[in-house]
Amino acid sequence: MLSRLTRIFSLSVLMILVGCSSAPDDAANADSDVNDPLEGFNRAMWTVNYDYLDPYVVRPVSLAYVDYVPSPVRTGLSNFLSNLDEPASMINNLLMGNGKKALDHFNRFWLNSTFGLLGLIDIASEAGISKHEEKAFSDAVGHYGVGNGPYVMAPGYGPLTVRETTDLVDSTYAPLSYLNIWASIGKWAIQGMENRAALVSQEAMLDNSPDPYALTREVYLQRRDFKAEIEQPEYNPEEEEYLDDYLDEGF
After folding, report:
1. CA 80 to chain centre
2. What are the Acidic residues biased-composition ranges (predicted)?
3. Which of 34, 91, 149, 151 sits 20 to 30 Å CA-CA off 218?
């Protein structure tokens, strides 16, 4: 276990350094928030995922799971798998300074694990304890200024960033640390099918976009910043109006 922790810690440090080194130096650069050095490869993988794997494999399988698996079974599985992430979310919220959310994750875990049949029943929500979004270790390090690093479109998986590789740290916390490779794959697959089915309502927006790849990248990176609770610059309408006037005069 010690050697495993050492390897994970070393990988995390390496990814943090990569993320820091990839931070843009020129804030005035229009593409400063986009770190996509593998765009050619990524667009090729986007074509594989979007034109072939998703419509012929991922989407139909996900919809079949939602349509044919009884709702109580799906709900129980979702609750159980979500409960496994509560301790990691508790620790990562503590790292981010979110004490109230960390306490909610702790209370949800012990209540659902004991009175909720190992998490199959969401007793905590019935008790009025808020269910917060899962927080990963990459969100915690991102909260403190570590950049996303290069954007990657993985074949058969979808978008991710180099910073997300630090999420291996979460697998060292119980009960996730007790999952073998097959249980971890099963967890990822079931949660992935639920997430994919939930995106059906947004397909039209993607289909109507002139550049679906760029739209997906922008939304995904904004999502990463949101999860890391990175403060966005305040909107200044006077500066925006001045910039618009300047651009109109110059062009």
Report:
1. 19
2. 236-251
3. 91
Angle between helices 181-198 and 71-84 (to 10 degrees): 120
Cβ burial, residue 5 (10 Å; 0-12/13-18/19+) = exposed
Inter-CA distances, 248 with 6, 30, 216, 237, 239, Å:
56, 18, 30, 16, 14
Q: What is the pLDDT of residues 170-204, one digit of tens each?
A: 999 999 999 999 999 999 999 999 999 999 988 99
HEC letters along the chain: CHHHHHHHHHHHHHHHHHHHHCCCCCCCCCCCCCCCCCHHHHHHHHHHHHHHHHHHHHHHHHHHHHHHCCHHHHHHHHHHHHHHCHHHHHHHHHHCCCHHHHHHHHHHHHHHHHCCCCCCCCHHHHCCCCCCCCCCHHHHHHHCCCCCCCEEEECCCEEEEHHHHHHHHHHHCCCHHHCCHHHHHHHHHHHHHHHHHHCHHHHHHHHCCCCHHHHHHHHHHHHHHHHCCCCCCCCCHHHHHHHHHHHHHHC
State how far the Cα of 233 lies from the Cα of 110, in Å rounded to an integer. Answer: 38
Confidence of residue 230 (pLDDT cuts 50, 70, 90): confident
Tokens representing 134 are 């899962």
pTM as predicted: 0.77
